[in-house]
Amino acid sequence: MKQIRFFFLLLGSSFFYATGFSQVTSVPEQAKENFAAQYPAAQKAKWNNDIVNVNVKFELDGETMNAEYSNKGTWKKTLQDWSYEKLDAVVQDGFQKSKYADRTVTEVKIVYLPGNVIQYRLKAEKNDVQKKYLYFNKFGRLLRDAATL
Fold first, then answer.
1. d(Cα 100, Cα 135) in Å, to the nearest integer?
2. What is the DSSP letter of 74?
3. pTM for this prediction
4. pLDDT tens digits for 105-138?
5. By C-alpha distance, which of 58, 100, 62 is closest to 79?
6. What b/e readout covers 92-120, taking b as 16+ CB neighbours within 10 angstroms?
7. Residues 34-61 pLDDT 10s
């Protein structure tokens, strides 16, 4: 029994050792340059590279935002924290007329996409299992829904 405990202890410690010294992928210079050009007044930028996407969380004009770039540095989208109360009435009306109107909105983000496209992402929950991201355009039309955790 002691040998089994020792084996798992050894296995666990080797895992933490390996992850503690793993190489971190750097942020592509093109992403940094594009971010600086796109958001010159950004403050408190924190970068994260998960190999597929490069994310930078930052503040702009007192609002918390998160920009996403490809691993080549191309801008993909930016999310801005928002609230349901601050949404345009037409977007609120679109939600109230959707088949998800019986759900509680727990999170709202403005999604800025290439081509000057703006969408509104609402996280609507019915219970702990039934959760959806709902994407609306500026006219309050539901564009799509996506499952979320």
1. 12
2. -
3. 0.79
4. 999 999 999 999 999 999 999 998 899 999 999 9
5. 58
6. bebbeebebeebebebbbbbbeeeeeebb
7. 999 999 999 999 999 988 899 999 999 9
Residues in the chain: 149
Torsion of CA 27, 29, 35, 38, to 10 degrees: -160
Burial of 20 (0-12, 13-18, 19+ CB in 10 A): exposed
Report the distance separating Cα 103 and Cα 90, nearest Å.
18
Q: What is the rounded CA–CA span in Å between residue 134 and residue 99?
A: 11
Q: How many angstroms separate the Cα of 49 from the Cα of each of 40, 41, 73?
A: 21, 22, 11
Q: For residues 135 and 111, is the Cβ–Cβ distance under 8 A? A: yes
